């Protein structure tokens, strides 16, 4: 256990590194993914605004380290970000080799930014056609019949997650195929955030099995230390 002041310094240094990486991502790609946004300031097309969490982009390091740990062959898998905001995760997935990265976002302004980001990203990388931002409620999303990686950056509360999992289970019953789910939250999330309820729901879903996330590099483990990252798989019948 490190003494308090040292541990705070390390925490601060890591937060600075994450912030720099996010800024660098935008500078490199001509995108706009950093500024946070509150749901109350946005226009929600459909879905329950009261159950949604504000826009905060996932730090690039989270997916850069977790995608290779969870998906052996991205070329045969479709990546889906449930609550995709400005689309940063979709762009990271495209760079990682997913041929299709779908984002579901219910706030019109964020969806519009995601479309602009996709175009800017395409001009730099030529990978824009892999990215499909969709405007709508994640709880009503119809999953495509391919193998899936689902990403949740703590986007909404339990009632919406329940609808997502019910839809996923129906889709997997209809078209059995592999699916891996990655749930990102913070280790210090307060109880009133409802995060624990979501994690329990994932653990208790009868069609899902928890799996470890093995982060290979010490640098990756250092950068991801403040995050509660949980993975589950649904195996094909
Ligand atoms: C914490 S942000 C994550 C953004 C993005 N996934 C990322 O990691 O960069 C959560 C996002 O979920 C969206 N959201 C919340 N409830 C939603 C719902 N029911 N349907 C679709 N999007 C939703 C919010 O508008 C917000 O953009």
Q: Report the mean per-residue pLDDT as an integer.
A: 96
Q: So, the CATH homologous superfamily?
A: Vaccinia Virus protein VP39
Task: Report the CATH topology name.
Answer: Rossmann fold
Largest β-sheet summary: 7 strands, mixed
Count of β-strands = 7
Q: Strand pairing plus helix content: what structural class? A: alpha/beta
Using the 3D structure, state the CATH architecture: 3-Layer(aba) Sandwich
With strands numbered from the N-terminus, the spatial order across the biggest sheet is: 3-2-1-4-5-7-6
Give the helix proportion (percent range). Answer: 40-55%
What is the element string, with H for helices and E for strands? HHEHEHEEHEHEHE
User: Rough shape?
Assistant: globular
By DSSP (H or I, 4+ residues per run), the number of helices equals: 7
Bound ligands, named by name, code or SMILES: S-adenosylmethionine
């Amino acid at each position: 256990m490190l003494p308090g002041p040292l541990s705070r310094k390390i925490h601060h240094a890591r937060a600075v590194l994450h912030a720099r990486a996010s800024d660098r991502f935008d500078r490199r790609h001509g995108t706009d993914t950093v500024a946070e946004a509150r749901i109350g300031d946005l226009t929600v097309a459909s879905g329950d605004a009261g159950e949604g969490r504000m826009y905060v982009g996932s730090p690039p390091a989270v997916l850069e380290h977790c995608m290779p740990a969870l998906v052996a062959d991205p070329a045969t898998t479709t990546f889906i970000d449930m609550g995709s905001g400005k689309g940063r995760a979709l762009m990271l997935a495209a760079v990682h080799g997913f041929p299709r990265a779908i984002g579901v976002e219910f706030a019109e302004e964020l969806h519009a930014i995601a479309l602009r980001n996709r175009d800017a990203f395409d001009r730099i990388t030529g990978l824009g056609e892999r990215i499909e931002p969709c405007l709508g409620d994640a709880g009503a999303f119809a999953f495509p019949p391919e193998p899936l990686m689902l990403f949740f950056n703590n986007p909404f509360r339990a009632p919406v997650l329940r609808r997502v999992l019910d839809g996923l289970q129906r889709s997997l019953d209809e078209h059995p195929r592999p699916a891996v789910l990655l749930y990102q939250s913070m280790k210090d999330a307060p109880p009133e955030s409802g995060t624990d309820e979501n994690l329990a729901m994932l653990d208790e879903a009868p069609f899902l099995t928890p799996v470890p996330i093995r982060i290979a590099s010490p640098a990756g483990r250092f950068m991801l230390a403040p995050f509660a990252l949980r993975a589950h798989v649904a195996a094909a019948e």
